[in-house]
Amino acid sequence: MQSSETNYYSSLFLASRPKTLLASVLPVVLGSHLAFIQTSSIDIVLLSSIILSVLCIQVATNFFNDSLDNLKGADTVDRIGPKRMVSTGQIPSQSLIIAGITFVLMAITFSLPIVVARGLPIVCIGIVSLILSYCYTGGPWPLAYKGLGELFVFLFFGLTSVAGTYFVFIGNIDLKSMLLGAQSGLLCCVIIAINNARDIEGDIRCGKLTLAARFGLSFARTQILCFSVLPYIIGFLWIPLGNTKMALLPLIGLPLSILISFFIFRTVPSKSYNKFLGLSVISYTKFVFLIILSHYLL
Questions:
Q1: Any idea what DSSP says for residue 83?
Q2: What is the rounded distance in angstroms from the CA atom of residue 169 to the CA atom of residue 36?
Q3: CATH number, domain at 238?
Q4: Rounded to whole angstroms, how far apart are CA atoms 142 and 35?
Q5: 32-36, 81-85, 101-105, 186-190: range with lowest mean pLDDT
Q6: Which stretches within 78-158 are classed as H helix?
Q7: How does pLDDT run across 199-225, given as a tens digit for each residue?
């Protein structure tokens, strides 16, 4: 393989933002775990289909984001976040759009077993998810540029991914799946809120009106704190639902979430926020681990 070809595929891999992909898999893990509690079994074919589909949608979204943010001037060589492939000239914008469309088609292919199992509801969810993978930063009304990024993440990395996965295995959606989806969505919102707080100055300059850009850094920091604490507060609703351990054991992760918020309050937006992003992913992963562990404790 020639050097230029190797660099192309390496840049394509980096454009997929591999460090962020765990955030698309963890909600599926939560929904699958909740279904496993009820049935004591999981269909591996359906689980694989869900994971591969959501990974492809996430990668497609990241490809579109890299390309379209560059066209809109949101990504420049001066950004303090991880370098983007199009803005640094590593890969042409058109190539990344084509790659994004390819992954959309792959997501459709991988989702076929789920569609066969659950029919029209999955088709509807899939169509909306695929459309929004582009419309997050593209189209006439890009969500990320209108301050709707957090809402998008809450709905699709929380309620839709967790409750949708639960629906695939169980055939219905109940209060427990919605509660766990809300907790997941809020913890994912921490990740995007830190990202937006880090990029606040550049976003203001290019007209990308995230909530942080609209309302300022103090609002963004408070928002991150709220997103960090609320999942554990609403977790107490597990007690009247008959699962005290799922309410209490995840509280072990609360100090880390608060510590991340403390660091953000004490630090001006800089490359240090990239470390806080990593910590927020660890915090979310820890929450998922503790939720699963609570089922096996006496």
A1: P
A2: 9
A3: 1.10.600
A4: 34
A5: 81-85
A6: 93-110, 112-118, 120-135, 149-154
A7: 999 888 888 899 999 999 999 999 999
